[in-house]
Amino acid sequence: MRILIAGAAGFIGSNYVRFVLSQHQNAQVVALDKLTYAGNPENFAAFDGDSRFEFVHADICDADAAGEALAGCDALVNFAAESHVDRSVMDPAAFVRTNVEGVRVLMEAARTHGVKRIVHVSTDEVYGHVPEGAAGEDARLAPRNPYSATKAGGELLAMSYFTSFGLPVMVTRGANTIGPHQYPEKVVPVFVTNAIEDKPLPIYGEGQAVRNYMYVADHCAGIDLVLREGEPGSVYNVGVEFEVNTVSLAMGVLELLEKPRSLMRLIDDRPGHDYRYSLNSARLEALGWQPQYTFQRALAETVQWYVDNEDWWQPIKSGSYREYYEKNYAARLAQSRPLTG
Ligand code: NAD
Ligand code: TYD
Question: Is the CB–ligand 1 distance for residue 88 below 6 Å?
């Protein structure tokens, strides 16, 4: 199978490249990425020289480049996206372009080239805040921030290519994912890298928001199973059940790194913060998927990777990231409160 992996230089995309090349000896990977601030070619430097791997530096919104890269491919897995909620609140424009228009361009190219299996990678955030129970695939979509709204738009558009044109599209909606190579803007790498540097861990609101953190290898295995055995026209949730709030997450990180709890700081909340996500993944489990990592193991592996790979994240944190960090955190941290009780 020759697979075009779009967004392959990012966190989950690069882990998926690794997954495919290690699990499927006959696979050929075309890794396409625009290399935005979140894309890092070092994430797949390990495959330079592997004859089964090639990199195409391109924007998914560029129809000619997307078409050229897809020619001869049997499959497409689309990870390419603007992916961070806080940035989407600051500036939604790039999210609409890549997460919606980029999907249209890819689906058109896939139609033209007769691609046989397509997975569009979406997120649990399209269900919005889930106060109780777990969202099944038929639950109402109720995204509440520009990131999740554009992801909902993108996946609905992708699926419309199945209903309107018979394009074999499947959608996955994954839970919060953690592991190696995650850009230090999502909560786990922010907390881990800050703790390593004895900097404060900025906790939004009262720190009671709940997420289901899943190890990236489990997410990749779920996506790969859908690619190979999913039903075209279907949506698959990919999530774990274990619920963790932000304070418990911060404490877990600090314990693993043997750092003091006094590093935890409560800061002004994210606007429109979704306080709970929860997925029912029975449909994917029926295909044979089961997560292999407990939350404790996933967090421990992730923390250890950041401890062992400062040369990966230190250059990021000292570059343009600093501007983002200042903008998102500086004023809020100046007025932060310690955790009491
Ligand atoms: P990421 O931000 O680490 O990576 C995104 C990649 O897409 C980057 O390499 C970036 O350069 C590339 N990209 C952005 N715009 C592009 C464009 N116009 N053309 C080509 N490439 C472009 O994101 P991630 O965390 O790896 O997420 C990957 C996908 O998984 C996204 O679609 C995201 O919505 C989804 N997802 C992420 C999570 C999570 O917890 N991280 C959970 C569920 C679903
Ligand atoms: P994040 O990693 O941004 O993922 P999501 O897209 O699911 O919101 O945030 C996960 C949770 O952690 C969410 O409840 C917001 C919270 N959070 C903090 O408390 N502090 C932070 O610095 C960040 C980035 C997130």
Answer: no
Q: Give the span between the Cα atoms of 317 and 183, in whole angstroms.
A: 9
| H or E element at residue 50 | none
Q: Are 150 and 100 in contact (CB under 8 A)?
A: yes
How far apart CA 75 and CA 166 sit, in angstroms, is 15
| Side chain identity at residue 267, one-letter code | I
Complete domains list, the chain, with CATH: 2-178+213-238 (3.40.50.720)
**Six-digit token string for 110:** 């896939």
pLDDT on residue 48: 87
Spatial separation of the C-alpha atoms in residues 155 and 144, rounded to whole Å? 16
Q: What are the residues whose beta carbons fall under 8 Å from the beta carbon of 296, sequence distance 6 or more?
A: 252
State mean pLDDT over 262-288.
98
pTM of the entire predicted model: 0.98
Distance 322 CA to ligand 1 centre (A): 20
Nearest CA to ligand 1 atom 29: 79
Query: d(Cα 123, Cα 151) in Å, to the nearest integer?
Result: 7
Query: Across residues 57-71, what is the average pLDDT?
Result: 98
Buried b (16+ CB within 10 A) or exposed e, 273-282: ebebbbbbbe
Residue 327 structure tokens:
């903008």
Six-digit token string for 229: 């055995």
Average pLDDT of the segment spanning 280-293: 98
Q: What is the mean pLDDT of residues 289-309?
A: 98
If we measure between CA atoms, which residue out of 62, 122, 60, 125 comes closest to residue 89? Answer: 125
| Catalytic annotation present for 147 | yes
Supply the Cα-derived Rg of the chain in whole angstroms.
Answer: 19
Q: How far apart are CA 126 and CA 153, in angstroms?
A: 9
Q: How far is the CA of 266 from the centre of ligand 2 (A)?
A: 13
